[in-house]
Q: What sequence folds into this?
């Protein structure tokens, strides 16, 4: 028997995102997401579920299928809310969201630009940033750990995005997923010379391991890392396979004080998906 799912599909920097409008029990999220993400269904890199918010100042709640946090999905939901409310003025409209993976209210500034929505999102701040040298597969690797409440990003500076380093990143992501218990593991390969990022995202609950074409939270973590390592404010366009995402990371004395990312979101499809119940 097929189950009917109301969905909207978005394009935030080619990080194809599906948000589900219909209500479903939380325990079914991984099953629904796995089918929607598959090549023979709607096809996307991630799936979130739109729900009602608890905090009165929040317009909605976004629950990602694996309970993780996702910056691009925040942009997508903010763009959808703006489109539904016909907020198409040339000025920014602020939309606050409750989002899985963080207890911070996420504030999004949205305005329509031609057929897309331009978004600025204030991102969660990392709880800790530290540099470590680890021995992995017989090789000494220098990594930077950017830790959040429910997810972790590992920044690894590289000179090239070759196949051996990609395979090493995939194995490391799965190993950390088994040992750490976080809802999301991100391995962020970053070339500081070209300002390019190759983001690998692993969501253990979904067994989803994807080289994303654009990663909002990964961009924020790279910005936090750069501000922390250089001990100054960072404003930078981080180039990714799907396009660039701008990050602004404020630095104050000994810590990162605020991180904002900017990007564009297109609404590319809306309708019904049919999955195995």
A:
């Amino acid at each position: 028997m097929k189950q009917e799912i109301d969905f909207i599909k978005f394009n935030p920097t080619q990080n194809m995102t599906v948000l589900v409008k219909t209500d479903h029990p939380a325990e079914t999220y991984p099953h629904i997401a796995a089918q929607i993400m598959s090549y023979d269904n709607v096809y996307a890199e991630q799936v979130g579920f739109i729900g009602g918010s608890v905090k009165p100042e929040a317009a909605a709640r976004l629950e990602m299928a694996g309970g993780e946090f996702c910056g691009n999905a925040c942009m997508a939901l903010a763009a959808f809310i703006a489109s539904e409310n016909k907020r198409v003025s040339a000025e920014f409209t602020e939309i606050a969201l409750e989002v899985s993976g963080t207890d911070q209210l996420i504030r999004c500034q949205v305005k329509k630009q031609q057929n897309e929505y331009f978004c600025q999102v204030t991102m969660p701040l990392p709880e800790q940033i530290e540099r470590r040298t680890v021995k992995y597969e017989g090789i000494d690797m220098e990594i930077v750990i950017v830790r959040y409440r429910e997810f972790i990003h590992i920044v690894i500076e590289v000179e090239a995005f070759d196949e051996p380093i990609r395979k090493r990143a995939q194995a490391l992501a799965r190993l950390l997923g088994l040992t750490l218990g976080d809802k999301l593991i991100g391995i962020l390969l970053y070339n500081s010379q070209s300002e390019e990022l190759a983001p690998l995202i692993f969501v253990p609950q979904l067994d989803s391991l994807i080289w994303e074409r654009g990663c909002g939270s990964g961009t924020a973590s790279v910005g936090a890392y750069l501000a922390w390592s250089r001990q100054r404010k960072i404003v930078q366009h981080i180039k990714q396979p799907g396009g660039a995402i701008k990050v602004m990371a404020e630095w104050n004395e000994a810590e990162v004080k605020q991180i904002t990312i900017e990007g564009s979101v297109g609404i590319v499809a809306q309708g019904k998906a049919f999955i195995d119940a």
